[in-house]
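Hey L., structure's done. Input below.
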Amino acid sequence: MEAPPPPKAPMSPQDALRRIGFLLERARESPYRVAAFRRAAEAIRLISDEELDERVRAGTLKQIKGIGDSTAAIIVQAVRGVMPAYLATLEEQHGAPLSWDGAELYTALTGDLHVHSDWSDGGSPIEEMVLTAVELGQDWMALTDHSPRLTIANGLSRERLTQQLQRVHAINASLGGTFRLLKGIEVDINLDGTLDQDPDMLEQLDVVTASVHSKLRQPSYEMTPRMLAAVRNPRTNVLGHCTGRLVTGGRGKRPESQFDAEKVFRACLQHDVAVEINSRPERQDPPDELIELARDLGCLFAIDSDAHAPGQLDMKLLGCERAERLRIPAERIVTTWPVEDLLAWAKA
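Output:
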């Protein structure tokens, strides 16, 4: 995958509004601030160019539900063929690559095994996540919304997951094979190490990322067997953000969970489970020394965005920077694999 070049005028009003939303999300701005621009882009999606031109001339853009002063100004400038001033400012502030390192590995990435939508705690519809992934040059992506017990993140019940799988099927049918959206889940690891979704539902999925979200301060003698049980589950493909730490950001800091990392990573190696390199800047999980331990043991890795908004999908560059610096071979990173190879591994 490769980041697209910055847009140039002339550009469509919808593209301008979507790009503003992307850059604000990339800068980790408030979702409420982003929402106005994404609402405006959706509000004009089905409006013809002719009608937009007429509304610009008549000054009636704000009669469209979802269009306010700021978004109307952006639409007017785009319709007139000039770069919207606000977008130009954002490009200058946030348009540069998130890292100047890791570019070679980033180019080798083909997909992402950890992505959220507004079906759980993400901020955008599945279709918007897919469209942005395509624009970034991805070949495939796994939709991994949360499982039911994580109620704070609007986790998917059995019934809602069934409905989402139908939506994924419809999206793939509409894409005509140009991109593959995989059926997935970020399933919570319960206190006893079981996975928080019915086994028959997990069997319907292409890929399962398993993560600990509760009781993160358990002592090692409790956390280690909990994680081992999850890794040994034949439906687990990826061990997500294994320490649960937070190192920066609006949620504050959180220390690493305590567990026997060598035992857990040896189990990952034995059961063909990839260790996630979570690219979110507030996580940077696992820490460097644990990535090196998993590397030396021979584990597979997944460089994932853990994106909760379209503008966070290219945070994988930050994970690539760490993987390159820590000398992780590209062939051991499953998110560089072609989708058919990835699916064969996940089902094996």
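The chain has a mean pLDDT of 94. Residues 245 and 256 are 5 Å apart (CA to CA).

-- N.
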